[in-house]
Amino acid sequence: MQPKKLFSKESCKNIVALCDINYTGTLDYKEFSQLMTDVAALKMIFKKFDVDNSGRLNGFELRNLLSACGYKVNKQLLIIFMLRYGTKGSLNFENFVICVFKLKTMIDEFCKRRTTDLDDHINVNRNDWLKTTLYS
């Protein structure tokens, strides 16, 4: 009997790219260890907010989960998450993980580039922006 696959090959490639902070195409021990810790934590919180135990998060469940994690997203971003990562109005665990890693990566990149802690604007050159958005 083969073990149950949690993630597709394409999802694994996406997750590696999102966690590969030094752009090597692979994960070193520290990056891999952090990935495993994060996936375990995401699995627990996914189950907690999947109130109907469907194995999927609808838009309301996702909004509540993200808010509980400190990510305040507006309605437009929530719709974008569901369109990009969801299927038929909900997210399975695999796509949820990719969605959260993408959100975290983009917020981390934003915070690295903003000029002050209170500023909602960043300065970024085209190559840095393309590197971040295309690889992650």
Task: Please describe what this structure looks like.
- The structure is a single chain.
- By secondary structure, the chain is mostly helical.
- It has one domain: Recoverin, domain 1, CATH 1.10.238.10.
- The chain is built from six helices and two strands; from the N terminus they run ααβααβαα.
- The protein is globular, with a radius of gyration of 16 Å.
- The relative contact order is 0.12.
Summarize the SSE layout with pairings.
Blueprint: H1 9-19, H2 29-49, E1 56-58, H3 59-68, H4 75-85, E2 90-92, H5 93-113, H6 126-135
Antiparallel strand pairs: 1-2
What is the CATH third-level topology name? Recoverin, domain 1
- Number of DSSP strand runs: 2
Count of separate structural domains? 1
Shape: globular
State the low-pLDDT regions, or none. none
Counting DSSP H or I runs of 4 or more residues, the number of helices is 6
Q: Quickly give the CATH architecture.
A: Orthogonal Bundle
Distance between the termini: 34 Å
Q: Average the pLDDT over all residues and give the rounded result.
A: 86
Strands in their spatial order, largest beta sheet: 1-2
CATH superfamily: EF-hand
Gyration radius from CA atoms, angstroms: 16 Å
Measured by DSSP, the beta-strand proportion falls in under 5%
- Reading off the top of the CATH hierarchy, the class is best stated as Mainly Alpha
What is the H/E order? HHEHHEHH
Domain EF-hand: 37-72
Protein name: EF-hand 6 domain containing protein
Keywords: Calcium, Cytoplasm, Membrane, Metal-binding, Repeat
Pfam family, one: EF-hand_6
